[in-house]
Amino acid sequence: MTLTMARNWPVVQRENECTAVQAALVDKPGICGIVIVGDAGVGKTTLARLVTRALPTPVRWVAGTESARSIPLGVFAPLVGAGTSPDPITCLATAREALLSGDHSVIGVDDAHLLDQLSATLLHQLALDGSVRIVATVRAGESVPDAITSLWKDGYLQRLYLTPFSKEQSAKLIEQFLGGHVEGLSADLMWDASGGNALFLRHLVEGALEAGALRQVRGVWQLRGRTAVTSELAALLDSRVDQLPDPVLHVLQVLTCCEPLDLDTLSTIVGDDAVEEAETRGLIRVTKDHGIDVRLNHALFGEVIRRRLGTAASRRLSGELVRALNERPPTTPAERIRLAELTIDSDQADDVSLLVAAARDALALTNITLGERLARAAVSRGGGLAASELLARSLLWQGNAVEAEDALRPFHFDELNELDVVRWGLARIANLHWSMGDAERAGEVLKMLRGRVSDPGLRPLVDGVASASLVFENHLAEAAALSQHVLSDKSAPAAAVEWAAFGGALALALMGRGDEVSAVAKRGHAIESKVDGLLRYLMAFGEVRALALAGEFAAAAKRSVGFVHISTAGQYLAWSMANVLIGTVDLARGRFADTAARMEQTVAALTSESAASWSFPARLLLAQSYCVLGQVGPGAKMVAELRTRFGRHVAVFGPQLRIAEAWLAAAEGNVSSAIDLALDAARRAEESGQRAIEMLALHDAVRFGDHSSLGRLVDIATDVDGRLAAVIAAHAAALRDRDAAAILAAAHQFEEIGALLSAADAAAQAAFAFQASDDRRRTVEAAAVAHRLAAECGGIRTPALDIAAHPLPLTMREREIANLVGAGLSNKEIADRLVVSVRTVEGHLYRACTKLDISDREELAAIICGGQTRSVDLRQKVA
Asked: Is the pLDDT of residue 568 over 70?
């Protein structure tokens, strides 16, 4: 796909469609042109004119209009002149001769469905003669003159149906117009609202910019708030709505109030004929996902009709729907939600218990913004703490932490019974700890609950959320024990089980006890339909982490998708949390470029301080991706942000932050510091019982070049569950034994399970080991494997890969200083970075230059940055 600019809005050149149109107009035998059929605004005229502008022959365009439809040969008047004969046959003959005598080898007809009968007949005759080539556009669903229809039915014209843009095409179009990356969530929502219609999409983007709903954060464009309709598009859509028969308009009005709506209820209200005609006109679509439902084909029609409906008419329509739906009392969450939402806006009496139940259902189905709307309605109608607690939960899941606190502020701890105390306390703990990052105040509320709640049916709820808090505060053993206590209680409430599963799964995963996570996850899966939809994400966070640490990447990837149904921009937190799951798996697989791109959008979405705990793992993933890809500047900035955001509320990520700092040091060329930081990360992980993270940190240190920790790594990896640990143990043992063949075998095992970064580093280390034993053939073989795997990871840079790419007869410290020289640092800057004296740096440089038979640091920098040829020459010299 190529993009060119037209009036500041990109034109997408659809390669396949352009080729088809061009072939029909130039060199396709047996036909004399093409008719392009599609919905209004889909890009028919743009495509036709784009192709005809590139033709070597002249093209004359005419356009059918409603006003010219009553004038015989009206659209062709500019080409054939005014007719004088009242006889249609004579007029046709005269017009035909005029066209053929002129220089009109290609004729373009826009909106051919609006041609008068005589013009349509003329076009038909020209096609039969084959004397001109024809390109015509026709709006789908409109009545077309028989003379035009027969052209493609009889094979004179090829028929091309032009479909709306795909999600990918729409996203590229928007990014080209805005000149920057667009958040995936926002791109999806704009595609959904426009239906991929090029005209609608353009006006939607421009309207969102005008309204301030489309904004750029950290270099990523985000849509926040409802999609806006420009006055120009509103006028266009209004004109189409004005032409609709009243029964069809009634269909759209009803769906504007309630979408989707089951086909039977809609037909009962508006009639079968009206529904069928609306579908024929392409205004609605019937889906069979869960029953037979009807939706608007373009969400923007709903916006326009909503603006046209007055308050009274809207309430009357909603009341009409409520009465129809009450004929069958709701039995499912979806039915309760639909009825409650309609009741709010109708002229019917409110049922507060229905609103509370529906708000709870909406949260369980992850429709957080709708849950907020229903909960607010329940609060305003006297729903009490039950409604306010649901409102607080819906707000905290959207990152609106201060508002969530305000929703619970009217209620006083001492005035509540135990059940209400638990409702109030759990919502506040979740909000304070994970949204606001205030673990201290969350801990105070938890202490209050522990002192107050004694009911054995409620106590598991307190213990469950305590387990989750403990794991984030890095008390893994306590978290795992408390989780097990809750999960062993068969009568524990669903929310208690889910919180305990979250805390237990993550704790066990980090402790290296991944085999035990499946039992915890199974218990959580059994009740996940009964809790907030986003609580399922929390449990999945531990489950996905355990699978990734075990090297079960396919299972982890499968578990990381499909968690939430995103329908509004207000669900950015849900979208971001789901992205963290996917990014966790991608990073473990070595897909660093993909992870970086995804996490850039995620971190931008979580910039709000109301996402304190959720943004931290996203930043960790982004920081490590940048550093492994050699992007030192962005990596350093992200690590600095992590340091400022670190605290008790995310203490569990402390060792992983140290690992990110190690990778930053490695990216900067400071390998000795990278080793020290990785070893320190392992020490911190050991102190808190994070054996799986200790294993990863030690493995990083070993791949950076450390040999002191090989024995410890073998012991730890042997004790950690999963096949990834088994391969790490084999890799460490091979390095300890200096067994080049076994090191390469470990590289192949890493690749087999999908751990590509470890595979690339192990292959690079194998190449170095083969070189040490003067096995040239195996050296080249292992280096080729390392190079291939590094490319698959997105062009990564690691110390092991650098050594394999540029084998030099230098010690680790000499190579480290040489790398810093190559990066342009002065001797003083190198000394400051490595915390040594300038004289020490000078000594290492002198010895490095002597070994390489060069005279100064400029030549040394050239060798470090100069590629393989010089390295091969040096190997031969040393040999």
From this structure: no
